[in-house]
Structures are given as C-alpha cells and as structure tokens.
Design goal:
The protein is an alpha/beta fold. The chain is built from 13 helices and 11 strands. Strands 7-6-5-8-9-11-10 form a 7-stranded mixed beta sheet, sandwiched between helices. It has a two-stranded antiparallel ribbon with strand order 1-2. It has a two-stranded antiparallel sheet with strand order 3-4. A hairpin with a 2-residue loop joins strand 10 and strand 11.
C-alpha cells in the first residue's frame, strides 16, 4: 500500500498481481489453454500481461514482476484477459503473434490460418539432416502461416522453399511472415489444392494436413471453432488429405526425396493397415505414433513388393 496525493492509503497493484488475477479469472471461467503454455493458464496470463505492457517475455525478472502499474495499464490488461474469456479466441489470434518454438521466433497470425502447434516442429532439424539433398527444394504442403517452411529456410540458408496452400487469405499471412524474415528470395507462396498446381520436384516435402472427421469436429473446444474449418476437417474419417498426399507425393519427390507428415494419434493405425507395403518410419509424441517419414526409393521398392505379392 502507499499514499496518494491527498494522503489517503491506496493499493499498489503490481505486474504479479495482474498475472495472478488473470489466472484466477480464466480458471473460474473454465477457459481452455488451447496449447498455449500449460493447462494451468499461468503462461497465458503472463504472456497477455507482458504483451500489453510491451515488456520482454522474461516472467522471472523481479524488476518487471514487482513493478507498480498505472491505472490505464491495469485497465488494458483486464480488457485483453476479459476478451480471451468472453470470445474464447485463441491467444495468438488476440495478439496476432504466434510462438512456434524452433527456433524461438514469432509469426504473424490471424483467423485466416490454423495456429501451428504440431509436434513435428521437434523433428525438423533431424529431418533436415536425413534428407538427401539434390536440388535443395522444399515443399511445405498446407502451409497456412508458413511457420514450418520458414523455420526450415532459417535452419538451412541453402534451400528454396515453396509454401503451398489452397486459401489465398492464408497465403497473404504467409507472405507477411516471409517479408518479416527477409526470405523473399528463397521462399515463395503457391496457391494450390494439394499438388494440383505444383510443377517442381523436391528433396523434402513436409505436411500437417487436415485430419479430423466431422464427428470429431463436433467435440472440439470453443477456441478451435475460430480456426478455418478447411484446415481441420478431412473427409473419409479424416483420411482424405493424407491418402491423397501419400498417393501423389512420389511424383513430386526427387529419386531420393523424403516426405514427412504429422497426422495425429488416431490415423496412424489406419494408415499402417492400408499402406502396409510402404516402409514408414514412425516417430512418437506422448508415447504414441504421430509423425511418419519415408523416402522415395522406399515407396518404389514397397510398391514393387506389393505387386509381386498380388501376382503370386
């Protein structure tokens, strides 16, 4: 507490106080953390508070946490946290800023794009080492904001990346991010329904396709309802897009090119059953298979073996 100009005792409200208030308010309202930070909502409250105050995101810095806030700052923090509660907008849509984590850079996002949160981000550097480089071309299929493809371009200054998406509005967002990192000479946008408008061949194709069914869509959180449905729903029980990609990818890969895809934890068993002849390499997330990769020569060899079995 401290005294104001008239000598009356008034409360001293700090950054920490507002973070605590934000966590309490959001928990009371049963807000879903929506893959931002942790379910306890502390990271959400901290981030929104620091965003409003235009402070660096160092939530442990006592200089910031113990700082007294002005009335207008308190009102601004309350406004943004109340917006998160009442609209159920995902945090990145509120701030138009998304942290993808590898490396720790931010991307511009709005409601025209899916909020990238795929665990494939943890494997990107490993995939890049496993690629047999021929023409140094990479395709990010269903790119949305362009996060995955741009990270790959930042990891390897020798590659050219095509960001492909069916939605023109999504590609406008991707272009903003290309310009943000001055990658216009190496990264470009292509509007296409999967491979329809693709002419090149690639050393590496990476994708996180739509992968949920209509039944699953009926059960998603209020936050996810703000994302473009075209980025979420795939026909045939969530399999339409990934099946098309598996069937078509060999034509767009170089002879030793590689495909990597993240398809969640429900589809892997279905894919394994249908494409038993293909040598998928699976990677686990939360102790379940979520991601696969496979190389073009393995695709061709698998198909030959499958054809032989059919003739026997």
């Amino acid at each position: 507490k401290e005294r104001n100009e008239s000598g009356m005792i008034c409360e001293k409200i700090t950054v920490t106080d507002m973070i605590r208030w934000g966590v309490s308010r959001m928990r009371k309202a049963n807000v879903h953390y929506f893959y931002f930070g942790t379910p306890d909502l502390f990271v959400t409250a901290s981030y929104l508070t620091f965003f409003v105050l235009n402070l660096p995101y160092d939530y442990k810095n006592l200089v910031y946490l113990n700082s007294k806030l002005e009335k207008h700052e308190i009102l601004a923090i309350k406004k943004i946290i109340n917006k998160r509660i009442t609209t159920r907008l995902p945090t990145p849509y509120i701030t138009n800023e998304h942290w993808y984590g590898v490396p720790k850079i931010t991307f511009y996002v709005n409601q025209d794009v899916f909020i990238s949160r795929s665990p494939i981000r943890h494997k990107l550097q490993d995939f890049m080492k496993d690629v047999t480089w021929n023409n140094n071309k990479v395709l990010d299929l269903g790119a949305g904001s362009g996060a995955i493809g741009i990270i790959l371009a930042l990891l390897n200054p020798n590659i050219q990346v095509d960001l492909v998406d069916i939605c023109p509005k999504a590609l406008k967002v991707a272009q903003i991010n290309i310009d943000k990192y001055n990658l216009g000479k190496r990264v470009k946008c292509i509007q296409s329904d999967l491979f329809k408008n693709i002419k090149n061949k690639y050393d590496f194709i990476v994708t996180v396709p739509p992968q949920i069914s209509m039944e699953e869509y009926k059960t998603i959180s209020a936050e996810a309802l703000h994302e473009p449905t075209i980025s979420l729903i795939s026909e045939k029980d969530g399999l339409k897009h990934i099946e098309s990609i598996i069937e078509e990818a060999p034509k767009y890969l170089n002879s030793k090119g590689m495909l990597a895809a993240e398809i969640g934890n429900r589809l892997p068993n279905l894919i394994k059953a249908k494409y038993a002849h293909l040598k998928f390499k699976w990677f686990k997330f939360q102790k379940e298979d979520w991601i696969f990769s496979w190389k073009n020569q393995d695709i061709k060899n698998g198909r030959k073996q499958n054809e032989k079995r059919r003739t026997l």
